[in-house]
């Protein structure tokens, strides 16, 4: 209903509906059965008893459209995209499984390992190269749409270290420096957790949510005086709740702020994660420009694709 260009709305405003005031129209008229197409056709096509209803629908649509234009949906300086790391960009669960299946291949430890990169004779080397290209590509796309950060509950320096070991061909530190993308480690923000409300559903891990929320708020503080278009992408409900709490905190100052969360699969395979990132990258611009909150929670790649398409295609 709201997928309409400025010129059409301006035409509606300047011709048929200039004199209609939303506040002065009857409030007891139902508009549920009317869409923009109904009053695009003009009064001559309306049923006699539907004139006021269609006029009210038109006026309400225009008022809603004008309000939505104020939302921070298309402004890169007001768009903030937060990626988790493990099982969001880095296929950590896949690598853990690979290590268990091939303990003698020397794939390195999860934290603090100084081993060289993934062995070239590893069966998954080519697939990891392709995944590294996908990570590079989605980060570039995201940065073209707004401000970007990686927020993780791992400890420093796991993100660049793991990328160096397991993402062949990707110099993550150089890429993040070029794109001005910070890495924020949640454990380092545990002293700032008072800035977040930790009232999350039982079992969601208040400490982790609050830590991630505090890290997100630190990232978002540069734009705290403007409406915030926050997009969170991760594999757990922790970052989803953290993003919503951060958005609520910012929303107290800027009610027009938006929060959009995309929860990816838990414990994905390498193929599943690469497919997820491809889908997210394909829809990321539409997601950034969407004028309403979004909450995607997928359990399969197919569900992710269908849910995102259903929510963002109007």
Structural overview:
This protein is of the alpha/beta class. The chain has 2 domains: 6-68, no CATH class; 76-312, Rossmann fold (3-Layer(aba) Sandwich), CATH 3.40.50. The chain starts with 5 loop residues before the first helix and ends with a helix. Helices cover 45% and strands 10% of the residues. It has 11 helices and 6 strands.
Task: List the secondary-structure elements in sequence, H or E.
Answer: HHHEHHEHHEHEHEHEH
Question: What is the radius of gyration computed over CA atoms, rounded to a whole number of angstroms?
Answer: 23 Å
Strand order of the largest sheet: 3-2-1-4-5-6
Q: Give the averaged pLDDT, no decimals.
A: 79
Q: What's the domain count? A: 2
Quaternary structure of the protein: single chain
Give the low-pLDDT segments.
Answer: 1-6, 12-34, 109-114, 200-204
- Measured between the Cα atoms of the first and last residue, the distance is 7 Å
Q: Mind summarizing the main beta sheet?
A: 6 strands, parallel
CATH topology of the largest domain: Rossmann fold
Helix/strand/pairing category: alpha/beta
């Amino acid at each position: 209903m709201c997928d309409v260009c400025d010129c059409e709305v301006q035409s509606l405003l300047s011709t048929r509906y200039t004199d209609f005031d939303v506040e002065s129209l009857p409030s007891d008229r139902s508009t549920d059965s009317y869409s923009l197409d109904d009053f695009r056709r003009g009064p001559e096509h309306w049923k006699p008893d539907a004139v006021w209803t269609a006029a009210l629908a038109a006026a309400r649509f225009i008022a809603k459209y004008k309000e939505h234009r104020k939302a921070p949906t298309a402004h890169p300086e007001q768009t903030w995209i937060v990626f988790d790391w493990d099982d969001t960009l880095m296929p950590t669960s896949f690598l853990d499984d690979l290590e268990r299946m091939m303990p003698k291949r020397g794939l390195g430890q999860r934290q603090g390992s100084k081993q060289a990169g993934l062995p070239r004779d590893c069966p998954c080397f080519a697939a990891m190269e392709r995944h590294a290209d996908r990570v590079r590509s989605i980060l570039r796309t995201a940065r073209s749409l707004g401000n970007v950060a990686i927020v993780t509950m791992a400890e420093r320096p796991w993100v660049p270290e793991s990328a160096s070991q397991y993402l062949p061909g990707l110099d993550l530190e150089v890429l993040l420096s070029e794109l001005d993308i910070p890495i924020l480690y949640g454990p380092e923000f545990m002293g700032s957790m008072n800035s977040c409300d930790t009232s999350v559903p039982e079992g969601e891990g208040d400490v982790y949510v609050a830590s991630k929320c505090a890290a997100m708020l630190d990232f978002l503080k540069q734009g705290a005086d403007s409406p915030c278009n926050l997009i969170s992408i991760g594999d757990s409900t922790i970052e989803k709740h953290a993003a919503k709490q951060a958005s609520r905190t910012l929303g107290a100052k800027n009610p027009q702020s938006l929060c959009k969360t995309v929860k990816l699969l838990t414990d994905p395979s390498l193929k599943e994660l690469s497919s997820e990132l491809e889908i997210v990258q394909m829809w990321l611009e539409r997601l950034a420009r969407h004028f309403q909150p979004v909450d995607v929670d997928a359990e399969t790649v197919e569900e992710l694709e269908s849910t995102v398409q259903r929510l963002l295609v109007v």
